[in-house]
Amino acid sequence: MTTVPQNFTSSDRGRFREQGPLEDPERVARGLGWFSIGLGLAEIAAPRRMARAIGVPDDRRNCATLRAIGVREIASGVGILSRDRPVGPVWTRLGGDVMDLTLLGRALSSNRSRRTRVAAATAAVLGVTALDTVTGRKLSRGTAEGTARRRAIEVRRAVTIDRPREEVYAFWRNFENLPRFMEHLVSVRVLDDRRSHWKARVPGGATVEWDAEITEDRPNELIAWRSLDRADVPNTGTVRFLPSPHGGTEIRVELRYEVPGGRLAGGVAKLLGKVPEIQVASDLRRLKQVLELGEIVYSDATIEPGLHPARPPARRIELQTPKQGAMR
């Protein structure tokens, strides 16, 4: 229940978690990083012993290959451990697994190899490959979800209105009053005691719409809401009505929005190009004017756009917002 926000940036950077055997893919990735470094050091320091362990001849060619693989393993481990969310290094490590399996496949067909040991090494690499694959997918999915969370925004603003709490609450609680001061809100249609339908304007003449429901309603104290499923602009929020120490009512608004998708995303993105706190603060100033003065005060530049001498209007200006006139 609010106007559309004007920014998609956010400092929300929650940590990704997923239920299942790999509840924390970042922790698994760190383990893989240390495993890579340990394995790489062993392959560089003792290539002959490693060759015999996996069942291939410890000749000069195989030792050189194992040292090269060791360097690659250390590079992968360092890449994984140097990042908070090592998506790229984990997928790079998976590519190394594929190379190792190719080499082991060739060793299995060689008469010079101890095939039982090669088969055991191949099974071990297959297990690590599966772990790398699952970890890479979970990290990639977590990065996408983290990006979505960062595109959600939260806004907190307040204003003091020189009117009693009962009056301010009653005005807001009649949601069809909200387009009178919310700049981009086209209309609100009350469906029943708790649900309502909202429509907001975006650049280019398009509109976004959503249904909302009240989740908490304490007369003269608080109204909380959330948008329902399939909302063009998913949102939640609360507005609190508090007694001001200087008289009147202090309104505290807390809003949270998520980025819309689909064909309207571009238009809404243009609409949300300004700082959201500025828009909400502007809406609350207009609410203050409506409740204290009975009208929204417009500047001379708003009434007569373009360059012109400052002067009182030649005709009486009706006390309504432009949207009110458009809705008639």
How does this model look, in words?
With 328 residues, the chain is α+β, with helices and mostly antiparallel strands. The chain folds into two domains: 125 residues; 167 residues, Alpha-D-Glucose-1,6-Bisphosphate, Chain A, domain 4 (2-Layer Sandwich). 47% of the residues lie in helices and 18% in strands. A seven-stranded antiparallel sheet has the order 1-7-6-5-4-3-2, with helices on one face. A hairpin with a 7-residue loop joins β5 and β6. α1 packs antiparallel against α5 and α2 crosses α3. The longest helix has 36 residues. It starts with 24 loop residues before the first helix and ends with a helix. The N terminus and C terminus are likely disordered.
The gist of it:
By secondary structure, this protein is α+β, with helices and mostly antiparallel strands. Helix content is 47%, strand content 18%.
Distance between the termini: 22 Å
**Integer tally of domains:** 2
Strand content: 15-25%
Structural class: alpha+beta
What form results from the Cα inertia axes? rod-shaped
Number of strands: 7
CATH class group of the largest domain: Alpha Beta
CATH architecture identity of the largest domain: 2-Layer Sandwich
Computed over alpha carbons, the radius of gyration is 32 Å
Low-confidence runs of at least 5 consecutive residues: 2-21, 261-267, 315-328
